[in-house]
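A quick aside before the break. I want you to see a complete sequence-to-structure record at least once, exactly as it would be stored in a machine-readable document. Don't worry about memorizing anything.
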Amino acid sequence: MPISIELCNDEDLTEVFAVISDTFQHEQPIVDAIFPNHDTPAGRTRGTHMLTQMKQNPNFKFLKAIDSETNEILGQATWILLDRPLENEILVGEGWDTEEDKEFSQLLHEQQMRYRIEASRAVQGRLLVLDCLAVRSEHQRKGIGSKLIQWGTKLADELQVEAVVEASMKGAPVYEKHGLRNVSKMQYSMPAKFAGRRTPNLLFMKRVPKEKTVP
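That is the input. The structure line, written in tokens, reads:
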């Protein structure tokens, strides 16, 4: 099965969001926080709208991995090329079931973002972030994720910038194969009223660019 990595068109984003939703299901709390009820028709409509808004920013690079014979989207990646240090932003949107769900999601997002903020400040804002990587379950372990990662690491080397990702325990070995190294286990501190809620189990990983060879 020939796989091609291409930049997404606006028309791809409905299918791209379906890939994200189907891949993560409800295994990652941060996905549920940003995209509440993402596996419902209304949630998928909202999620696609959010991706469309993000894509208007030229620093967001939405990739699709497609079967070159059928044009089916098998996986996706979102790389963000920063050009200035990040600032803390409140998670906005709609679709949470309760105000408490919204508050929890905003706190989770805030605490997750602090790792990116610190990394961006350390390099004066020039940083490449792998925001999301998803491959349909039936097409995993076929090298599709690696191709999507390699697109970003190649760009990072060309621009001589560091690359970072928040990696699941399952995904970390794949990132390690492409030069990303564990910086820290991500920690989340929540108020007592949220003690029973799941928080992500992620590693913050970083890759230093390969030095350009002098001809």
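Two observations worth writing down. The longest helix spans residues 99-122. The chain has six helices and seven strands. We'll return to this after the break.
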